[in-house]
């Protein structure tokens, strides 16, 4: 059984990844700004911890990572999925809108990764011969983020 830590798990790819992991017998820490939405979508299960996480709060990221380790003993896979797009030409987006986008899509991802990696590293060193040492950090990004489009240059720079 692997333990997944998934941000933005209330809908979209995050919810689909969580569903797939649960169906395969893995444990899932499904984070969202409103964990009740996760429970409504995935149902209450022994292998599911739905917890609050606004990725713009590094303190919440550390709290969620601590809850994950307390419940499941480790984190094997981090899926940085939370994020959003800002459509419009570069001159149409205000500095505040662009800063909020980067706070979520760039600095939020970094904060969550900083909160989770120490737990993953502790698990990796030193492993006994009977424990798997595999782990992964995954960043979900839309295909459109690989190249700036006229209506989404901020999104492309924040998610690429």
Biggest sheet character: 5 strands, parallel
Radius of gyration: 16 Å
Helical amount: 40-55%
> Which consecutive residue ranges, at least 5 long each, have pLDDT under 50?
none
The CATH class is identified as Alpha Beta
Could you give a short description of this structure?
By secondary structure, the chain is of the alpha/beta class.
List the helices and strands and how they pair.
Blueprint: E1 3-6, H1 12-23, E2 27-32, H2 35-42, E3 48-52, H3 58-72, E4 77-80, H4 95-124, E5 136-139, H5 153-159
Parallel strand pairs: 1-2, 1-4, 2-3, 4-5
What features would you highlight for this structure?
five-stranded parallel sheet, alpha/beta, Rossmann fold, 5 helices
Could you please describe the fold and organization of this structure?
The structure is a single chain. The chain contains five helices and five strands; from the N terminus they run E-H-E-H-E-H-E-H-E-H. The protein is α/β, with parallel strands linked by helices and 160 residues long. The protein has a single domain (3-159), classed as Rossmann fold, CATH 3.40.50.720. The protein has a five-stranded parallel β-sheet, with helices on both faces. Helix 4 links the parallel strand 4 (77-80) and strand 5. The two termini are 31 Å apart.
């Amino acid at each position: 059984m692997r333990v997944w830590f998934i941000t933005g798990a209330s809908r979209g790819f995050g919810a689909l990844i969580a569903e797939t992991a649960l169906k395969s017998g893995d444990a899932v820490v499904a984070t969202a700004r409103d964990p009740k939405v996760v429970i409504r979508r995935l149902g209450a299960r022994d292998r599911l911890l739905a917890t609050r996480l606004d990725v713009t709060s590094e303190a919440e990221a550390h709290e969620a990572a601590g809850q994950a380790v307390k419940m499941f003993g480790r984190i094997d896979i981090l899926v940085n999925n939370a994020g959003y797009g800002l459509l419009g030409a570069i001159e149409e987006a205000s500095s505040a809108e662009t800063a909020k986008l980067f706070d979520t899509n760039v600095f939020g991802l970094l904060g969550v990764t900083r909160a989770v990696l120490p737990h993953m590293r502790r698990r990796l060193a030193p492993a006994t011969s009977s424990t798997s040492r595999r782990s992964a950090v995954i960043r979900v990004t839309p295909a459109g983020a690989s190249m700036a489009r006229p209506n989404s240059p901020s999104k492309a720079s924040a998610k690429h």
